[in-house]
Design brief:
Layout lengths: L1 E5 L9 H4 L7 E4 L14 H17 L3 E4 L5 H4 L1 H4 L14 H10 L4 E2 L2 E3 L2 E3 L6 H7 L10 H10 L4 H7 L20 H9 L15 E4 L5 E3 L5 E3 L3 E3 L2 E3 L6 E4 L4 E4 L4
Parallel strand pairs: 1-2, 2-3, 3-4, 6-7, 7-11
Antiparallel strand pairs: 1-12, 5-6, 8-9, 10-11, 12-13
């Protein structure tokens, strides 16, 4: 399969041009974080809302489009999640909260936490084995049905307990939990978790062998001339972390990516 992957948006428009070629792809998958723009990119909240409306309309008009929810989306998407601890809602727009929440509410059926295509798991931040075992009570320790896991991940949206599990944030992201959820896990968590594949003495969790694609960990900085530089995606073993304002074409058969965005 040939997929178009669009990582963290944050008000950016890099998704627009590649989506004009939607007929070339089996699926188009957005990895979330549609709002809360970065200050260094000079995108206003109002511009990010207009961009979000365009994305929602695009998804509504095209059934092959998948919209993943992320940590920046959840406070707008769920009132219950929003009230857990507002200190952890980075760059959240209190001023435009109601307007954004109304958009999510109107089109809530378009959004999901996880998606599978051709045995590739798509989430915003990646699934760490310890978090999966904690949330699903070691249901997947010995054997993992990927479709069932995806269903279980999406069902977390349906209860307060599930939302609390999504709210789990490790110290690598300023939280207090021992590990991050699939919308909060840092690249260091997924990297070292996957590295256990090389340790013959470590228990081999089934998630290590699952091909995962996610975003969440920003690869950007300003050089000495104040020019914004976006780093390359991070690829390791069965994982691809894409968060650098670029659109990607993914070949699921070879599990290879091609950058479609000129910077």
């Amino acid at each position: 399969m040939k997929l178009l992957i669009l990582p963290d948006i944050h008000g950016r428009k890099f998704w627009c041009e590649p989506c004009t070629n939607i007929d070339q792809y089996d699926k188009v998958i957005f990895l979330g974080d549609y709002l809360d723009p970065y200050e260094f990119e000079d995108i206003t909240v109002e511009q990010s809302i207009d961009n979000f409306r365009d994305i929602v309309k695009f998804a509504k008009d095209n059934p092959k489009v998948v919209l993943i929810l992320a940590n920046h989306d959840m406070p707008y998407f769920s009132h219950t999640y929003y009230n857990f601890d507002r200190r952890n809602h980075c760059r959240h727009s209190t001023l435009f909260h109601e307007i954004i929440s109304e958009i999510f509410e109107e089109y809530k059926d378009l959004f999901k936490i996880a998606h599978i295509e051709d045995n590739v798991l798509f989430t915003h931040a990646g699934c760490v084995s310890a978090w999966i075992d904690y949330v699903f009570e070691e249901k997947y320790v010995k054997e993992l049905d990927l479709n069932e896991l995806c269903t279980d991940l999406n069902s977390l949206l349906n209860s307060k307990e599930g939302l609390l599990n999504l709210f789990m944030i490790s110290s690598t992201r300023g939280g207090w939990d021992p590990f991050g959820s699939c919308i909060w896990a840092n690249i260091t968590e997924t990297y070292w978790d996957s590295a256990n594949m090389l340790n013959e003495d470590a228990p081999q969790h089934p998630i290590y062998k699952v091909r995962q694609v996610f975003g969440h960990t920003l690869q950007a900085f300003k050089d000495k001339d104040e020019k914004i530089i976006y780093g390359k995606p991070i690829e390791f073993r069965n994982c691809k972390m894409l968060d650098n304002a670029c659109a990607y074409e993914l070949d699921t058969e070879t599990f290879t990516i091609n950058n479609l965005t000129k910077q």
